[in-house]
Design a protein that fits this description.
Layout: H1 7-20, H2 23-29, H3 37-45, H4 48-85, H5 89-101, E1 120-122, E2 128-130
Antiparallel strand pairs: 1-2
Helix pairs in contact: 1-2, 1-4, 2-3, 4-5
């Protein structure tokens, strides 16, 4: 016979699981003791309601992080302009560094994925090419 779990235990499991994705720790946080924690964790992770709540919690956290990241970027841009107005080179450089490290900018990332627009590509000479057309990446100028 399956063991009965309360909605409060499910909620506690979801809350703790979304912190670090440690299912055993989440099971213990939800009140499960000792060797039963792994089995309890598996039961929780197989429940539709629990999976829905985990997905919703993570979606909200991601949304909150995105808002905070945008706020940091906007503040760094404001600080850059203020530092430039005051001719504060050190302050401007620090603001630029923060902007460059921002999650949406990643100017200092080693491996940058470049996604070009899917319709039109311009080469370095300014010539427009439709994407379907073969574009020589090293055009020879005469």
């Amino acid at each position: 016979m399956p063991k009965v779990t309360t909605p409060e235990q499910e909620d506690a499991f979801v809350h703790r699981y979304c912190m670090d994705f440690d299912a055993s720790a989440a099971a213990m946080y939800a009140g499960c003791k000792g060797k039963d924690a792994n089995a309890f964790a598996q039961r929780m992770l197989n429940r539709k309601r629990v999976n829905h709540e985990i997905a919703e919690t993570l979606r909200k956290k991601t949304q909150d992080l995105d808002i905070k990241a945008r706020w940091v970027l906007n503040e760094a841009i404001t600080n850059l302009w203020l530092a430039r107005e005051k001719k504060d080179v050190s302050g401007a450089n620090k603001a630029l560094e923060i902007i460059g490290k921002h999650v949406d900018i990643q100017a200092f990332k080693e491996n940058v994925d470049v996604n070009l627009p899917s319709v039109i590509v311009k080469d370095f000479t300014g010539t427009r090419h439709d994407e379907e057309e073969d574009v020589d990446p090293h055009p020879v100028s005469h």
